[in-house]
Amino acid sequence: ETTVRLHRASINLTGETGNENISRQSRMDRRELELYKFHAFAVISSILSVIGIVWGLYFLHVFDLPDDIEEALTDSTDEDANPKDKATIEAIVIIIGAQIPLLRTVLEFFTKIFPELQKPRSKALLEEEKNQRHDFSGDMGFMGKVKKEIEHLFDLLESKMIYDAENDCWRPVRLSIFVDDLDRCDSKTVLKVLQAMKLLLDNEHNTVVTCYSAIDTRIVVASINAEFKDILNASGSSVGGYSYLGKFIQVPFCIPDLSSEKKALFIGRLFLAKYLENPALLYDSMLIAKAKIESELDSQSLKWSGEACFDDFNVLRDSAIPNFSNAKHFGSKDSNLVGFLKDIQINKKTSKNLKDILNDGQAYLTKYSGSEKDNEEVLCLAMKYVQYFDSAYSQLMKKSQSDSQPPASPSTQELKPASTEDIPIENPDTEFLVPPNPAPTNPIQQPVQPESTGKEDIPVESFLQSMANPDENEWFQTFSKYLEGKPRAMTRIVNIYNVAREVAEMKLGEKARTAMFRKKLIIVVILVELWPYRMSWIFQIVENALEEEGLISLISRAEVKPNSSAGTNIADVMKQLFGNKNRSEKSESMLEIFSRVSLFEVYQKVARVLMHSPDNSKAELCRDSDPQLFEHLLLERDENINDIMMMSDIIPMDYMEKLDKDHGHTLQPFIFNMQMYMTETASKNMENVVIYIEKMMEESAIDSTNASGQNGGDVWEIKYEYIATHFEKEKILAKDYANSTSVAHRLKSTLLDLSHISL
Question: Which of 314, 346, 391, 432 could form a cystine bridge with 517, CB 3.0-4.6 A?
Fold first, then answer.
């Protein structure tokens, strides 16, 4: 800021108007000379002022000089003059005369330099803009003055050189201006900013300033079209907002989407951000890891000797960890973290898995320069090193626990009855698993519940106290391929999950800490955040099906006959499509069906048809991300435990008590990112349609716009029509029936008359 103000002051001293055709070096030399002359004259005039004041005070006899000096200065020819009057006049003349150079310097300072040093020109111009006159015929106007200030800025940047230490040279200065979030402003502000960028930066003297504008072109173009609607329409169909925007953007550049690897890396760093900001925490974690491994190696060495990570444990135990907690350079002698990681990498005992991890950062270890980027990458590599031991140690400890636990008695499992009583929230004995009950024709293999060990695993404390444990970190990195490559969107998903997990742990206790529950919670958070419209229909289908099943039960008990002409209710649709008709016993309830039907099946056969029923469905579908990735994520599962997302995972909380005791808890109460109006809108839209389910004779005859399902070899499809259209058809049919009845009656009367005449 001081440099900018002194630059403006030097321009004022030289009296430049901006119209001189002078080279850049000549301008720089003139300004430096004027500043030097001003400084020199200020010093000399100040010295003269002080001498004049001292000399004047002497003649006023304020102080006396030594006798020999006073005699030498005394004029013997002026003995007859009045010495007092003479001294007073001389003192006044000397004092005033000595101040003239200083007064000139002060005047020049206050007229040319002080206004620039007192207040930035930007503030001065803004104050002037508030009080400006409405008639600018006499001057250049406010924007003209601003443009002149911008030209001074260009001149300053051209006049300055900076030293480039990396290339060991002096180079010109460049200024980069970033205009961000312009698409969040109202349309008038968008146009004002674009016009200001064009006016101020599109200057013939601009060779040093580059403006970058990060915008969503769809929003900005819509703002342009809204402001210039009449003009653009009158100019022809080929001219639009994109053509107008092209006048401002010289080099358009669309940032490509992040790869799955980059997304996974970003999410991993989100969980461990505090270690990047505070290396002391990472250093403490490394010490904790070493201490725990040292203590366990003494007692577990025989069991672990055959493991791939056993040699890595020994290498860590025998290595000295450098203290890099407060270091700013990780290659120095006292805090040589780079050297420590290099030694681990080249150690012959280091396993291949750990070497592969360290090889990812080989370039930063080999060419470490101490830059901020290198420091961050070295810390990330050190975190991966600790995470490796964290994961290996956790797996070995859990394996040791499982080996020491006796197997559960099979007879006890066989005699244990299924219960539908209320499940206490504090009960830790349930896993978030779906009891196996597959239908013969169901193409989705259902989850298989593993044998109970009779004892819960003891959780192993992690070395790194991050926002996510190693399993959660691994799941997020696995699911990162489904995320949009926007850092803000990925951060929002992680934040939503953290809040949902904490609330679930507060409400459910140990049941919310199972791997199955947390993994499915991550999946449903991603589904709702990236595909809110599709998920709102699936949620509403679940709720409506359960409510209509209850309504059917009430109607049956009340012995009331429902209106059978108003289509098929969603509960009957679900039973027709997914119910098991091969059972000789009573039909399944909706909860039993939901316990073995996946979200993917319901989406394919029901939701994908009904979600197109609203008039604004195209606009709503634009909110959702890639539809193919949606189906992929619905089918995401671990082959070992087959943890596919089931409809019973998202049932309303009120129906939990009717589920089997061994079923996990529903996720719906912890889905905080589903906006209420989305499900309410889906509910209203479902009330506006009449659903039909039809049996198709040939599968090839199914229309591409409808969903199909199979049950016992039959092929079914669902269709819908708007309820207003349905009842309008009912009226027309009723009217036609009445007309046909009247015609038949008249025809019968005519025949009777003819018969009478014939007789």
Answer: 432
